[in-house]
């Protein structure tokens, strides 16, 4: 197997100023339904290459511009100094419990001889600052154990200009993030000191600046323990920008951050659920080949256990077998506070013989946050292990995202809201992942529900008792569920997902908080939400109005008028003329209608007169019945348009078998069912009358078409899409979602399937249509 770093090595070479930029691969074209083609069989390197090349171009453009203007780069999108509130805090800042930096300085002002890397990135460099992002720093510490990986996450930079370009993985693709070198510090300006504080420096501002405000320890957030090294606080800043602000990265699981840094897949496993501890030990020994690990202790227990803190993320650095014993080397991202049990620094287990083996164990004494645990103590102490699977250049990714509407809560916890189909071209190892969007960048407006997922996979056509695989359950309310297969056989499959939820906010949380939110910040959060949700193949842009930004590549050397003219020229207007004939009846009904017409000269005369534009006299209003209506055994008869007077009907003898006159309009009306609440997408008729069709393709947003449009414009909709014929009122009622006002039943789900070698996966998605699938009583045997 190629090295785990092979795909990064192939994309990003070590930074050399002025080196040639690699060409950007051309993305494949998109389609309008089913899975987008560029999401099928995509090499795990392809989007990384695109994002890297894009990031390099952006950084190069900034460098060129700054040099021309003789200035350092200041990021207008994330200006720590000029836009402090927005960069630090979210929509709900709790100022008393949130960071409050004293000042903002450039890297060149903080360090005397700043360097991005000094002898490369190392886990021993990492020290957490005044921010609750231990989970992120723990992930960084874990990733540093894969030599050279962190070096390549920053794909381009110019330290003199102060511009840095990073790439992170989010949802289903790589995202580039550009930042400047301004950082928050904890030491205030000299002018902000009290008189007695200034006296400590003998009222010497120059001495104060040189001693108190220089060095890594002045940084407010994370820092490298190697003096003058800058990669860690800049990486942390880039991740904060990716998620909107520093407050957004408080609290989390390091598995999430490992995914963002590597593009891998992470799962949480309770230690007590490990079946064979020897097999798991082999996994730990193979760390860095295709897996990374972290560990934590459940926060429901005491705050501190033998020196280890609960609800705090730790990095697994290494597993070793030395002198017949199994050890796990672990690190606290704080850079201090270690395990105080057996094999802790200075414990009685360290005999003279074992002290000689310290180099073999890659360990040294000191309160640096790194410590050793024997494997048996590791299993007894930790409650959760986080495993991250990393994919090298041999792996391909296929993915598809859908906006899913579940049933109104409370409801049955069952399958039936969404399914995915996928086909595999050849046998392959595989990882199947069903996940929600990463909502960290719009958490405060992400709805009032937490969601939990699980799924079952069947071979196409198999019975419900013959499942092929199912997701592994670990903890509720995680972002995704996954299944790992040593061999996914070639063939066609169906995946059924089951959704669970719980309320975590009041239903009116948005309205309640709206007045207190900063509108400018809210606009940017909504934009992030809209951009994230737009990954879904059935995304409706109209629902997000002005929150969606126009594509950056749209704007160039053309003015708005020219751009708008081009955009309008691309839109094809739908024909909505009312003069088109109505073919709503079937062929058989139409022939009957012609017979009625030929036998009813009165009606035919009226119709002809109407077509020619002749005036048809109105009813005199004395009789309440409409033409052709039957009331109490009496039929109303009308003259043609040429009659001068209107005759009153005489009471009909019940014994007489006189013919009842029925107009074409009445026959047409009585043959149709009115489907309230449904609109034809083509002619805009609402409600639809008579038979109609609903498109079942998930890319179509509630596409309904009446039978009239279906017959008169047969090529208006994609013929490869399946259509459901709706004829009765009962059928249409089953399609109604019946959502209660204010309920939040939507969630965006993505299916990602990783395969190896030549295997390619094609994915399709299907959504629930109303209540067509419902409970039925089983027949007794």
Describe the overall structure:
The strands form ten sheets. Strands 9-16-10-13-14-15 form a six-stranded antiparallel sheet. Strands 1-17-31-19-22 form a five-stranded antiparallel sheet, with no helix packed on it. α5 packs across α10 (254-262). β4 and β5 (163-170) form a beta hairpin. The chain is 24% helix and 23% strand. The chain starts with 5 loop residues before the first helix and ends in a 14-residue tail after the last strand. The chain is globular, with a radius of gyration of 34 Å. Mean pLDDT is 79; it is low at 1-33, 37-42, 572-652 and 737-743. It is an alpha+beta fold and 781 residues long. The protein folds into four domains: 43-252, no CATH class; 265-389, Cysteine proteinases (Cathepsin B, Chain A, Alpha-Beta Complex); 395-549 and 744-767, Sandwich (Jelly Rolls); 674-727, 2-Layer Sandwich (Wheat Germ Agglutinin (Isolectin 2), domain 1). Belongs to the peptidase C2 family. It comes from Rhizoctonia solani. Residues 675-731 form the ZZ-type domain.
């Amino acid at each position: 197997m190629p090295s785990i770093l092979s795909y990064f090595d192939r994309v990003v070479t070590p930074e050399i100023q002025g080196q040639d930029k690699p060409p950007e691969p051309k993305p494949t074209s998109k389609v309008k339904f089913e899975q987008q083609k560029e999401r099928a069989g995509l090499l795990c390197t392809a989007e990384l290459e695109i994002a890297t090349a894009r990031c390099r171009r952006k950084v190069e453009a900034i460098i060129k511009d700054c040099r021309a203007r003789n200035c350092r780069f200041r990021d207008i999108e994330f200006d720590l100094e000029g836009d402090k509130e927005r960069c630090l805090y979210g929509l709900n800042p709790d100022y008393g419990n949130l960071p409050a930096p004293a000042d903002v300085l450039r890297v060149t002002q903080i360090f005397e001889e700043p360097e991005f890397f000094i002898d490369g990135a190392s886990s021993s460099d990492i020290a957490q600052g005044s921010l609750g992002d231990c989970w992120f720093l723990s992930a960084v510490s874990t990733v540093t154990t894969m030599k050279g990986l962190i070096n390549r996450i920053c794909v381009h930079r110019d330290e003199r200009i102060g511009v840095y370009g990073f790439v992170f993985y989010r949802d289903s693709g790589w995202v580039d993030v550009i930042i400047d070198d301004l950082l928050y510090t904890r030491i205030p300006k000299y002018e902000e000191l009290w008189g007695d504080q200034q006296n400590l420096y003998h009222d010497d501002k120059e001495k104060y600046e040189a001693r108190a405000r220089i060095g890594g320890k002045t940084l407010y957030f994370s820092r490298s323990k190697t003096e003058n090294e800058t990669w860690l606080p800049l990486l942390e800043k880039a991740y904060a920008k990716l998620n909107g602000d520093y407050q957004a990265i408080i609290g989390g699981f390091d598995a999430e951050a490992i995914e963002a840094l590597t593009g891998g897949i992470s799962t949480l496993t309770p230690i007590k659920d490990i079946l064979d501890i020897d097999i798991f030990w082999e996994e730990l020994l193979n760390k860095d080949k295709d897996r990374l690990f972290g560990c934590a202790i459940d926060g429901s227990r005491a705050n501190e256990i033998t020196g280890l803190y609960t609800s705090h993320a730790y990095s697994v650095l290494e597993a070793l077998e030395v002198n017949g014993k199994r050890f796990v080397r672990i690190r606290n991202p704080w850079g201090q506070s270690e395990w105080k049990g057996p094999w802790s620094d200075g414990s009685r287990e360290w005999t003279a013989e074992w002290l000689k083996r310290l180099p073999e164990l890659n360990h040294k004494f000191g309160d640096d946050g790194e410590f050793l645990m024997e494997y048996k103590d590791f299993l007894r102490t930790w409650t959760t292990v986080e495993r991250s699977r990393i994919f090298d250049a041999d792996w391909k990714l296929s993915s598809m995202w859908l906006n899913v509407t579940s049933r109104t809560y409370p409801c049955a916890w069952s399958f039936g809201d969404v399914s995915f189909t996928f086909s595999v071209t050849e046998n392959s190892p595989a990882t199947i992942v069903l996940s929600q969007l990463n909502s960290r960048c719009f958490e405060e407006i992400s709805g009032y529900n937490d969601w939990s997922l699980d799924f079952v996979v069947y071979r196409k056509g198999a019975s419900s008792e013959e499942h092929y695989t199912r997701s592994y359950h670990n903890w509720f309310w995680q972002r995704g569920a996954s299944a790992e297969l040593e061999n996914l056989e070639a063939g066609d499959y169906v995946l059924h997902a089951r959704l669970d939820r719980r309320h975590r906010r009041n239903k009116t949380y948005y309205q309640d908080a709206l007045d207190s939110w900063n509108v400018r910040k809210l606009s940017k959060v909504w934009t992030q939400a809209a951009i994230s949700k737009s990954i879904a193949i059935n995304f409706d842009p109209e629902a997000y109005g002005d929150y969606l930004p126009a594509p950056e590549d749209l704007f160039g050397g053309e003015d708005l008028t020219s751009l708008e003219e081009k955009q309008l020229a691309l839109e094809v207007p739908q024909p909505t003329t009312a003069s088109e004939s109505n073919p709503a009846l079937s062929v058989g009904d139409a022939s009957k209608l012609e017979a009625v017409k030929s036998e009813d000269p009165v009606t035919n005369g009226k119709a002809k007169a109407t077509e020619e534009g002749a005036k048809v006299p109105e009813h005199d209003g004395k009789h309440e019945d409409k033409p052709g209506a039957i009331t109490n055994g009496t039929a109303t008869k009308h003259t043609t348009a040429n009659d001068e007077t209107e005759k009153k009907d005489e009471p009909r003898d019940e014994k007489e078998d006189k013919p009842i006159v029925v107009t074409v309009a009445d026959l047409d009306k009585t043959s149709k069912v009115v489907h309230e609440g449904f609109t034809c997408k083509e002619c805009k008729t609402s409600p639809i009358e008579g038979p109609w069709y609903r498109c079942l393709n998930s890319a179509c947003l509630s596409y309904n078409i009446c039978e009239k449009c279906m017959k008169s414009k047969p090529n208006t909709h994609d013929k490869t899409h399946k259509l459901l014929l709706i004829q009765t009122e009962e059928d249409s009622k089953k399609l109604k979602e019946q959502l209660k006002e204010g309920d939040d039943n939507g969630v965006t789900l993505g299916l990602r399937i990783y395969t190896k070698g030549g295997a390619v996966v094609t994915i399709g998605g299907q959504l629930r249509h109303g209540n067509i699938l419902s409970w039925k009583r089983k027949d007794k045997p």
